[in-house]
Each structure stands twice: as C-alpha cells, then as structure tokens.
Amino acid sequence: MNNDRIEGNWKEMKGKVQQKWGKLTDDDLDVIDGRREELVGKIQKEYGKSRDEAEKEVDAYFN
Prior knowledge:
The chain has five helices and no strands. It is mainly alpha-helical.
C-alpha cells in the first residue's frame, strides 16, 4: 500500500492499528498521523524489532 493511501485513511485505521500493535499509545498514533516511516519506527522501538522486520510487518498488514 502506498503512503498516500495510509495517510488518507488514517483516522479510520487508527483503531485497527492499535489493536494490531497494542503497545502504541493514542499519542503515538497522533504523532504517526498515517506516515508509514513513523509507524515503522515506532513498531521497531516498542517491539525491539529490526527495521526490516518492522517494515515487512507494516507492509503485510496494509496489503
């Protein structure tokens, strides 16, 4: 999924993203604001994943 599509639907997707990655807070999701790179970075930090793992997880979730 391209970044524009994530950003355009972010308000609707926030709840589902928080269900998937429960360690992300509402504040985290507000900061992310639909930006893929921000989401990948937060998942990497909160879950101790490599950048590659986090990117694959995000891509798989949104595709």
